Amino acid sequence: MKTIRRVAVLGAGTMGARIAAHFANAGVPALLLDIVVPGQPNRNAAAMKGIENALKLRPGGFFTDDKAALVQPGNFEDHLEQLSECDWIVEAVVENLILKRDLWRKVEKVRKPDAIVSTNTSGIPLAEISEGFSTAFRTHFLGTHFFNPPRYLHLMELIPGAETAPEILAAVNDFADRRLGKGVVPTKDTPNFIANRIGSFFGGTIAKVMVEEDFTIEEVDALTGPLIGLPSTASFRLLDLVGLDVWAFVGSNLYTAVPDDPWRDRFQPTDFQKKMIERKWLGDKTGQGFYKRVGKGDNKEIQALDWKTLEYHPAVKPRFASVDAARDIENLGERLRTLVRSEDRAGRFLWRVFSDLFLYSAERIPEISDRIVEIDRAMRWGYANKLGPFELWDALGFVDVVTRLELDHRGLPQNVKDILSRGAISLYRHATGEGSARTEYFDFLSKSYQPLEARPGILSLPDVKRSNGVVQQNSGASLVDLGDGVLCVEFHSKMNALGEDNIGMLYAGLEETNRNFDAMVIANEGENFSVGANLVMVLLGAQEGEWEELNRAVHRFQQVNMALKYAAKPVVSAPFARTLGGGCEIVLHSTRSQASAETYIGLVEVGVGLIPGGGGCKELLLRLKDPRRVFELIGYAKVSTSAADAQKLGLLDRADSISMNPERLIGDAKALALSLVPQYSPGVPRTDVKVAGENGFALLKLGAWSARQGRFISDYDVTVAEKLGNVLTGGRLTGEQTVSEQYLLDLEREAFLSLCGNPKTQERMQHMLKTGKPLRN
Fold it and tell me: How many alpha carbons lie under 13 Å from residue 97 in its C-beta half-sphere?
């Protein structure tokens, strides 16, 4: 397999700079080249601006700012010779065929013979870009279409050129998967490939139905966001982020490129969108689009566009009876079925949009893809949809949808008729064979179910549970046999908030591991690893004065964390996304962590008027050995912006491992756990923890007072900070002393419970539960 040690990115616009930044995130040095800007004394100014923008962008392009040092700026006139040192050259200049071909001609003269060359084009056929180039060039040339922002969106479409060597495709596939963390989807060299072909159609369909059914911008976004498994940006907020001009450019190019597509009118902007483009109402980059912000500070207001009059009005929160009835249904499939069965406007809107999506996606096989699998993955990974079109079809009931389409007198594509003629009742199904469970998909070409190929190193907990069963479970957590002697504790409570079900299963997992396994992993496939303690139960206990029960619950959580830390066999946690409060404390007490690159971890209890009560204060003090650093980290509720940032903060250990590909997280955690087994030796609770005593407490208290004088914190923040400082310095001890871990845990628990009894803390907890935001009272 080809080794990729250094890469080059040609084009330092937003996309090129972000691609270079993500190579840097993976630890790969990148040469970033762009034009020499006329009249600019710094000939590398364009590339340097790209790096600066990647640092400033929110969300950021780099895991940590120091990663930017791995990106070397340059220009096309002075530094093309340096391409001879690069193993992979990615072109990401503007979508102009003449410009791209001219640049590649220059590159061909200096690239080393075995260098991979790829284009990030999203709309120009690869055959047109590479036509007339040497055989050596064409065998190394392919398309690698990253989705923006490449750090956050999982998809990379892999497009073979007419002569791309199989080993080059395999090398890029493997590198993008393992090093860059990409979900690689092989596609055909068709206009806009898979994701933007389907995505452009879906967006155009939503706009068309909105106009025909007389919906508002706000109504459409309320219906096409998390409610149906799409991101919170929904439809028109997404267009404001992307830029209406960019969206229209992609759609217009696609319209021209697919003259035989009977649905291609969906790619054209609507009349009101054309008027918006004429007025430069393009979205966030011009300050207004489908939405705009008016006013400043507390008077800031979000206004929405009335597409019929092109006037703005204060955005309103739409209400639909069917949505109100379905909103609290946690299971996405059940929620979708409830919505589409509704007879109100919302139900009719969603049915029209979904039914067109299903028909269009089916008709695109085998034009853009031979399998439904790649279409579903492209939409999930590129547009962050919970379900791809065919998975969505199954969620609504394949046969039920077909029946309704026929009642609507909609013509069915021939490949759908083929499915029905085979007696199939779903597009995907679970099956067993050869001693294991597997997923099968209906293959439109062979007109039969085919097994979904295994992907080595990728573990899916639902698949594992179908194969191996569940060792033990309750409503909040399960024990799952991952095979090879590794047991998994899986959380599946709401938002993976921690309560007795989770804690009890951690204890059960440790006992089961001691009896029958070699190691234990704490992992799940929810939205977040864990958002922390079940705040509702804490608040209710405090309001009802159930102090003995609260004390018992906090003590039990502390002791399970200590049991994890000093377990007889290694325990590996696999944090990802939000890993907050108690979730962070579980990670801190694990033998080792295998963290997703996108892990946002922190002890955030001060936001609800508390301090960490499960050993977080104690564990950070042991790790950082500096009470002032711990005081700031907890006192300001700092949350990492990535796993790499968490290592810098001390919330993850430098010895902890990071998985770039989130799909590989559980498999990597299992491998790490097994690697620890041969040399593992459990420790014993420490009794030699140094604490600073009263003098240290005075210094921390002074820091809190200074922050209050600077109006960075409130009076009650000072109260909470003093409780925190008391714990971190060992209580009111005279001078430096050594104490035990249990002593510090007792101090934590005492401070936690005393704060629970304070009305201001209870106000903060209530506000957080009601609004999802901290209250500074």
Answer: 10
> Is 23 within 8 Å of 69 (Cβ atoms)?
no
Q: CA–CA separation, 323 vs 479, rounded Å?
A: 35
Find residue 440's DSSP bridge partners: 429, 451
How far apart are the C-alpha atoms of 116 and 102, rounded to whole Å? 18
Tell me, what amino acid is at 80? L
Q: What is the pLDDT of residue 435?
A: 60
Quote the CA–CA distance of 301 and 292 in Å, as a whole number. 8
Report whether 17 contacts 50 (CB < 8 A).
Answer: yes
Contact criterion met (CB below 8 Å) for 425 and 371: no
Q: Residue 290: helix, strand or coil by DSSP? A: coil
Task: Name the H helices within 87-157.
Answer: 97-110, 126-130, 135-139
Q: Tens of pLDDT along 380-395?
A: 999 999 999 999 999 9
**pLDDT tens profile 4-19:** 999 999 998 889 999 9
CA 371 from chain centre, in angstroms, equals: 25
Nearest to 588 by CA among 609, 618, 568: 618
**Cα three-residue angle 91-95-97, rounded to 5 degrees:** 85
- Positions in the chain whose pLDDT score sits under 50: none
As a whole number of angstroms, the distance between CA 523 and CA 284 comes to: 37
* CA torsion through residues 459, 460, 465, 466, sign: negative
